Amino acid sequence: MATITPTLTITANAASASTTPGPSSSAISLSVTDALTVDVLKASTVTPTTTHSLLFDGSAEDDGGVAGTHGGFLYFKNTSAADHDVYIGAMVDGGTAADLASADNAVRFMTLKQGEFAFFPYDYTMDITVDAENAAATLEYMLFNRGL
Q1: 58 falls in which pLDDT band (50, 70, 90)?
Q2: Nearest residue to 3 (alpha-carbon basis) of 33, 50, 38, 49
Q3: Tell me, what DSSP letter sits at residue 58?
Q4: DSSP assignment, residue 9?
Q5: 57 and 5 share a domain?
Q6: CA 63 to CA 145: how far, in whole Å?
Q7: Cα→Cα distances 72→3, 77, 137, Å
Q8: Which residue has the higher pLDDT, 95 or 113?
Q9: How confident is the model at residue 63, as a pLDDT?
Q10: Residues 75 and 22 in one domain
Q11: How many domains does the chain fold into?
């Protein structure tokens, strides 16, 4: 088993600050850290096309099928060299990937702008799909399997 230690830090000045004003009347200073046990890492940088495709098949990643017990942690970062959006979707395991670029698509749960990132748990009970507004977009991902 291995351990990863993700840390999230959010800081902002008060809205009244003369330099780099923040979003609230008070300054924000938040930092959380956790030590997570993992056993397998899958990592890659992909070039999603403007045609939606399967990125992770939940049933193929599944190592037990009990939501909240198994699963892993996903890290995504839009590493596009230019201002290209990357769309991330979630659908029923074994479903058919849908166009994530449409404005009313119910399976799209995330748009990553250039340089943006996300880190979140993934139970393997669904499929993760990807799409991009431009064929030159790039997405870096890491899937850390939760150690049991």
Answers
A1: confident
A2: 38
A3: H
A4: E
A5: no
A6: 9
A7: 12, 17, 25
A8: 113
A9: 64
A10: no
A11: 2
Both 48 and 84 in one domain: the answer is yes
Is the backbone of residue 71 left (phi > 0), alpha (psi -120 to 50) or beta?
Answer: left
Which CATH number is 104's domain given?
2.60.120.770
pLDDT of residue 74: 97
Q: What sign for the dihedral angle of Cα 110, 55, 124, 127? A: positive
Q: Got the DSSP string for 92-139?
A: ETT-----SSSTT-TTEEEEEPTT-EEEEEE-SSEEEEEEESSTT--E
For residues 107 and 129, the answer to whether their CB atoms sit within 8 Å is yes
Quote the tokens at residue 90: 């979630």
* Same domain, yes or no: 49 and 15: no
- Which is nearest to 128 in space by CA: 50, 42, 55? 55
What is the mean predicted confidence (pLDDT) over 108-112?
92
| Residues whose CB falls within 8 Å of the CB of residue 56, separated by 6 or more in sequence, listed in order | 74, 122, 127, 128, 143
Domain that holds residue 10: 1-34
Confidence at residue 66, expressed as pLDDT on a 0 to 100 scale? 62
Q: Tell me the whole-structure pTM to 2 decimals.
A: 0.89
Residue 49, pLDDT above cutoff 70: yes
